[in-house]
Amino acid sequence: MMNENVEQHNAHGGFPWKHVIGLILSLALTLIALWIVVSYSFSTTFTLASIIILAIFQALIQLLFFMHLNESKSRVWQIIAIGFGFFTAATVVVGSLWIMAYSL
Amino acid sequence: MIADIKAFLSDFLVLGDPLIYGADISIVLSMVAIVFVLSYFKKWKWLWKEWLTTIDAKKIGIMYIIAALLMLFRGGIDALLMRSQITFPNEGFLDSQHYNEIFTTHGTIMILFMAMPFIVGMMNVAVPLQIGARDVAFPYLNALSFWLFFVGAMLFNLSFVIGGSPDAGWTSYTPLAGAKLDPGPGENYYLIGLQLAGIGTLATGVNFMATILKMRAPGMTLFKMPMFTWSSLITSLIIVFAFPVLTVALALLTIDRLFGAHFFTIASGGSPMMWANLFWIWGHPEVYIVILPAFGIFSEVISTFSHKKLFGYKAMVWSMVLISALSFVVWLHHFFTMGNTAAVNSVFSISTMAIAIPTGVKIFNWLFTLNKGRIEFSTAMLWALAFIPNFLIGGLTGVMLAIAPADYQYHNSYFLVAHFHSVLIGGTVFGMFAALHYWWPKMFGHVLNEKLGKISFWIFMVSFNICFLPMYFVGLMGMTRRMYTYPEGLGWMPLNVVITIGAFGMGIGFIVMVYNIYWSARYGKRDKTGDPWGGRTLEWATTSPAVEYNFAHIPKVETADAFLHMKEKGTTGQISKAPFKPIHMPNNSGKPFIQAWLMFFAGFGLVFEWYWLAIPAAAATMLVMAFRSFEYHDHHYIPVEEIERTESATGRLN
Ligand code: HEM
Ligand SMILES: [Cu+2]
């Protein structure tokens, strides 16, 4: 198994444009989110909504540019893993909101 | 000026407490002793080349296990100190502050720095061998995981002698653990120490998931994997999804404490209860992280020593899958009493009870594996057999605690303390002890003495029950958790005396086990065969201890219990059959060690809010990572001649 990995490593080569673009995009999204929050010039609703949307884009960029989501051969595992990820994320968010609704 | 320095040193060095002076002296003495021994025997180079820079999973596993045993000792001493304080009413051995610190360090160390490394250590020792691989998927990352865990544990332990221990419980609930009510470095140590170790654990989860999914020997389909490998896969999955929640929660509380944010303070719109919520979103999956690998080990041990195939293999797997999903939807049972609505409590009450179903399935599977088996009462098997009833007690009392209205009675009483020790000791610790005896020959090439092993088993197991069964009752009598003393006349004394006797008995059992380790290293039976127990899975197909590259030829797998099948077909020799091909292996590296210690100093800087230390150390960490990414020669080939030499030295060459 590992033998094959070596060959793949060395085969990479070329300038990693994808990573650089991903890095710039994710930095930009982070800075925009930070600016929206610390500038205090928007309503709370707008602030919250916009940072959530930015966070979703951030997650997509991470998955596509760094985690090679669309490059792998073993699709099944990716689907299972992402499905489980959605399941836990949803339980955490929905569960916390429900639990905290009365005790905040 | 001088007065300032004096005041600083007095806090920094925690002056004025004889117990801490004792610790200071013993730490300095043992450091001097280690340095002396290493220098006298000229072992520095050996230590660096063979251990500190190793990225061999087998050795990393051994280091994890040694660290876990040391932490078990430290946590055990904490436990005995606590028990000494609450044996009799109105004792003055420890004051309340000191007691708070000790139950905090005991709980945190036992879970994060004892149970976790023990499990990860066993995974490192056994999983690559069980799936017929030569190492894990990312060996360098594996070394980094270990060293991050190690420096996290060291940072946490340092709090005792430098700056003062954390004292808000292993759960570190806000607002108590916030900056306002608990100033000083203690809680910072908790936050940063766990953060470092947690990052290491997260990387371990990724690593073992990739290893098990991608590096199995040809022919080993998922449903032919050994049960311990299955449990490691599921555990890794839970780690990957649960630990990020801890990372975030710790980071938020750190930001609260160090930079004055208000995530968990009522002021400025924060919510202290959010901490409890986030902590247990991680915390409940965490208890399954520490129990599932033990389940895997029991499956291996029970099947091996019943000389029978594991009963209901598929049911075992699916029940673990179900447990992993359910473990994410029960966390509220840790705070039923926090004032949620009845609907919230009911839902989580039912989801909690549902977990008992797959767990029960597993218990029956083990019982049916034993049924009509040719049972061999080895030490490992004794631990596995004792697990069943002891864990059952913990599981059943767990179902009692899951009944939300009743939990208002049990919550935070000694009944709860007894419950979680029943599952943690009766499950996890028994499991690790079983694994220790079972895989010891694979790690070190000799078996542990069976007679001493059985003596330590009986002393420990009986004392465990003497210690924890009475706790259920003293809890029902009203004694609450985290109580540093109790008044006379409540009728609690007789039970408390019994509990303390049991606690010391467990200490004796542990000492016998350590003595067994020493005795067996000197005189124990050497394992020349590589297969001392009549094993069924691939780790027994190679030598004890396994050669550097695990298998000269990767075995071909046709069935579950692959090695047993090879023995039946008489094909065991093929693993060492000439001709060989050069074997590709990763290079050792000192970078994980260096990077982790830089992170230690960055963490230490954060604990004391010394940014002049934290920032440069963090920058240096980045630098090491940058250097690593330009490292192209990170592997080598073992030449055929060397493989031939190694194989003929083991007497296996054919
Ligand atoms: C030698 C065996 C042990 C003894 C005698 C023992 C005893 C105790 C005692 C007396 C307490 C404090 C109860 C209180 O005052 O609230 C405690 C708490 C705790 N123990 Fe143990 N223990 C042992 C082993 C373990 C192990 C092996 C684990 C985990 C794997 C563990 C996990 C915990 C935890 C999480 C707490 C709660 C700490 C807190 O309240 O924050 N213990 N134990
Ligand atoms: Cu739980």
Automatic annotation (TrEMBL), chain A:
Q: Name one GO molecular function term.
A: cytochrome bo3 ubiquinol oxidase activity
Q: Which domain of life is it from?
A: Bacteria
Record's bilayer topology term: Multi-pass membrane protein
Its keywords, alphabetically, are: Cell membrane, Membrane, Oxidoreductase, Transmembrane, Transmembrane helix
* Enzyme Commission designation: 1.10.3.-
Q: Where in the cell is it found?
A: Cell membrane
Q: Where does the chain cross the membrane?
A: 20-42, 48-67, 79-101
At the top of the EC hierarchy, this enzyme's class is oxidoreductase
Keyword Ligase tagged: no
**Reaction(s) catalysed by this chain's protein:** 2 a quinol + O2 = 2 a quinone + 2 H2O
Q: What is its main location?
A: membrane
The keyword Magnesium is assigned to this record: no
**Any GO CC annotation of this UniProt entry:** plasma membrane
Task: Output the Pfam families linked to this UniProt entry.
Answer: COX4_pro (PF03626)
The record's Gene Ontology biological-process terms are:
aerobic electron transport chain; ATP synthesis coupled electron transport; electron transport coupled proton transport
Main function: Catalyzes quinol oxidation with the concomitant reduction of oxygen to water.
Stated family:
Belongs to the cytochrome c oxidase bacterial subunit 4 family.
Q: What is this protein called?
A: Quinol oxidase subunit 4
Automatic annotation (TrEMBL), chain B:
Record's catalysed reaction(s): 2 a quinol + O2 = 2 a quinone + 2 H2O; 4 Fe(II)-[cytochrome c] + O2 + 8 H(+)(in) = 4 Fe(III)-[cytochrome c] + 2 H2O + 4 H(+)(out)
Bound how, and how many: what does the cofactor note say? Heme A3.
Cofactors named for this entry: ferriheme a; Cu cation
Assigned keywords, A-Z: Cell membrane, Copper, Electron transport, Heme, Hydrogen ion transport, Ion transport, Iron, Membrane, Metal-binding, Oxidoreductase, Respiratory chain, Translocase, Transmembrane, Transmembrane helix, Transport
Task: Indicate the transmembrane segments per the record.
Answer: 20-41, 62-82, 102-127, 139-162, 189-213, 233-255, 287-305, 317-336, 348-368, 380-404, 416-440, 452-473, 493-518, 593-613
One Gene Ontology cellular component:
plasma membrane
Q: Which SUPFAM superfamilies match?
A: Cytochrome c oxidase subunit I-like
Localization, UniProt: Cell membrane
Q: Name one GO biological process term.
A: oxidative phosphorylation
Gene Ontology MF: a single term = heme binding
EC number, UniProt record: 1.10.3.-
Identify the enzyme class. oxidoreductase
User: One Pfam family this chain carries?
Assistant: COX1
PROSITE patterns in the cross-refs: COX1 (PS50855), COX1_CUB (PS00077)
Which Gene3D superfamilies does the annotation name? Cytochrome c oxidase-like, subunit I domain
In what way does this protein cross or attach to the membrane?
Multi-pass membrane protein
**Pathway membership, UniProt:** Energy metabolism; oxidative phosphorylation
The UniProt record lists the Cytochrome oxidase subunit I profile domain at 42-558
Q: Would you identify the family this protein belongs to, as annotated?
A: Belongs to the heme-copper respiratory oxidase family.
Q: What does this protein do?
A: Catalyzes quinol oxidation with the concomitant reduction of oxygen to water.
Q: What is this protein called?
A: Quinol oxidase subunit 1
Say which species the protein is native to: Scopulibacillus darangshiensis
What taxonomic lineage is listed for the species of origin?
Bacteria, Bacillati, Bacillota, Bacilli, Bacillales
